[in-house]
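seq/struct pair 1
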Amino acid sequence: MNYKENLYFIAKCLTISFEEKNKDEIELILKTTDVDWDTVVKVSTAHYVFPALYCNLKHASFLNYLPKDLVAYMKYLTDINRERNLKIIDQAKELNSLLLANNIRPIFLKGTGNLLVGLYEDIAERMVGDIDFIFSEVDYPKAITILKDFGYSLAVKTDYNFPIFKHYPRMKKENSIASVEIHKEVLLEKYASEFNYNFIAKDCQLIEGISVLSYANKLNLSIIANQINDNGFYYKTMPLRNAYDVFVLSKKTNAKDAVNTLDKLTNPLNYFLATCYEVFNNVESLEYNNTKKVVSYLSVFNSQFTNPKATKRKHKRIQIYLFIKKRLNILFKCLIYREYRIWLFNVLTDKNWCKRKLTQLGIKK
């Protein structure tokens, strides 16, 4: 199997706990095809769905089709991820109690929010990085102070920090399993007026004293994280971790209705939903708004698999374009906002920073 076939194979495997058609197709492949498991491991690991792959194959009783040493390896890593997630849940609950005791209610986002709501059949399915939560504009600075007083400090310590629009710089507490991101926004400035704290707070869920997004907004944020925040819309790629969350959430809420509640964001979110529908093999719960633009988007998405070298060059050009665009935006903000000017001055007068940049450019000082 080539890369595309492996990607689609893994994607189908991720649906077999829900989709009988895909379950039958995967079993036939496992019975009749010599699967390149080394590539499957490589691709599923790169997409952060290796534990989810194992859990779905186990749930379908398909592990007997896999090499025994691979099953042992998958179980080992999945058990480690389960233990990590249990600690993340405990840490999140501790933070929730701390903040509630100070009359501040956090709304947990992304993977941690999914774990807290019990979205997955096995909590080991989801690989989680940071604990993300969002606060109102009033509570945001209070939350930072409370966490600092509780022992959290900057994960990367510098004398200056870039003025991040969405969240405070990542924080970490000694002996805690995960870093923490305190959000005041979840989106880049361009779309922040449409999908923000006020929008998601109005219908968030309260489960056992913990606030999380509604299932519809969980689904939207899973797409937004890639399409907007990680520029997936430009690259026309689809990380399976985000896609898997969208698939599981589509069993809890109407996916098409969820993306249609938005305005400027609807099209990029609908494109991702269409990609999920195709890669997961026409799953009914992932139905989307079919338009000419969607057809064009899917055409580009699929064409990128046929010539990996050309795709790599194209993505490099996009990366350069986005880098220049971001730097010009920073310079523009430096003209307007004092905090950006202070940050830029500190950076340019930092000898260590200048030395690193010269080294990256291949210039020896």
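seq/struct pair 2
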Amino acid sequence: MTTKDKLFIILSMALAVRLTLIIIFKTYIHPVTWEYEVIVNNLLSGKGFLFYFFDVPYRSLNAPLYSFLCAGIYILTNHSYLAVLLAQSLFTMFLALVIFKIAKIIFDEKVAFMSAIIVSFHPGFIYYDVFNLIPLSIDSFLIATAALLVLKFKDRPSILNISLLGMMVGLGALSRGIIWALIPFLSLYFILFITRLALHEKFKIIIFFAIAAFIVITPWIIRNYVIHKRFIFIVSTTGENLWRGNNKYAVGTSFNKEGKTIIELWPEEFRKKVFALDEIGQKNFFEKEAMYFIRKDPLGFIKRYITKIYYFWWFSPQSGIIYPKPYFIIYRYLYSILLGFSILGLILSLASGEKVIKGSVWLIIFIFMAIFLTQSLFYVEGRHRWLVEPLLIIFFSYGINESYELLLRKIKLLSI
């Protein structure tokens, strides 16, 4: 049986598991809907890209890709939740294939196959694919695909190849704004690790990379300018995301230990002041308040920032509030194992004498940095880590494989 056949069987099984759970729990009738579903319904009813947030109509609440994708699916399927849930599940299967290709390039087919299996059966992705209408699998797929394109193009970084990478990052930013952070971090990677090019040639490909990403997102920027009469380059108008992680009641996540949102912790007078503003007014107010708080207590900001990085890679005291408790307990146990062997795999790969492996591993590290360093400026939830956890699984698989090989060598020596 070929590797392709094995992969097809594994991914078919993973898809079948999702479909079975969708049917058993009847999520095709009543999935967990987020703001995206409200926006899609407003789009389909002719009201436009609309969502009421803090008692105010928002026309640019979040990145548009998922909402427009769902709208297209609903038009074709008579508003079928099942179709969207299956589309999300398929994106996770595509994600597993991308992870397979990345792991094979960096390490070998054995590590790649193990990584693809774990990603396809990852409990977090199963939970969101089956129970929620949310673009987690799409976002993670776009980030992983950007990593794959860099690995394929880094030895032949033509303008065409780099422009294709830029278009992928731009598409990713239309799905989740934080993917914009890949531009500076990947640009730094080009400067440090593409050694076959002169510095001026590196700057040339970086310019084309950024321009291609900007071209993809330009229609949304223009649309927002027409509506709001100002340029908004970070896709959405939710300045509250920055404020949520940077104010005197901030705990680093969306909720306190009692499950209250951060805005609920503030006095009624404060909330009334916020609710009296329009969309852009709220954006400006929240950003101003957050920056004032940061400037007032810079050491406190640094401390909270480091704490949020810790929450990103581990768990906050509020972790699991919005998830079924048994699911969270199981995931926490599995993630502890995953993180331990991932750290081992990362150390072993960096200690490798092979220059090709080191350069590729540093690419993944730079992508990790782009996401967790940027996300921690705002607030952190467990699902934010799942954007890059599939890439982390590659190091887990390598750590497991190397540990197994070491164990076999020890047994062989003892048996002599």
